[in-house]
């Protein structure tokens, strides 16, 4: 079992999400890294400028 908190979403939000044709979710960088998706800041080929 995980130590992470369980969040309950309001029923009206769930209804709107189910009825939506498109949904965009904006997250911070830590979410992708924690999920195992490599981040660009650790890529050797990453350059700025």
Separation of termini?
45 Å
What structural class should be given to the helix and strand makeup? mainly alpha
Taking the sheet with the most strands, its summary is: none
Specify the number of helices. 2
Explained architecture:
This protein has 49 residues and is mainly α. It is 31% helix and 0% strand. It is built from two helices and no strands. The protein has helices at residues 11-19, 29-34. The chain is elongated and about 45 Å long.
Task: Spell out the blueprint of helices and strands.
Blueprint: H1 11-19, H2 29-34
Feature tags:
0% strand; single chain; mainly alpha; 31% helix
In short:
With 49 residues, the chain is an all-alpha fold. The chain is built from 2 helices and no strands.
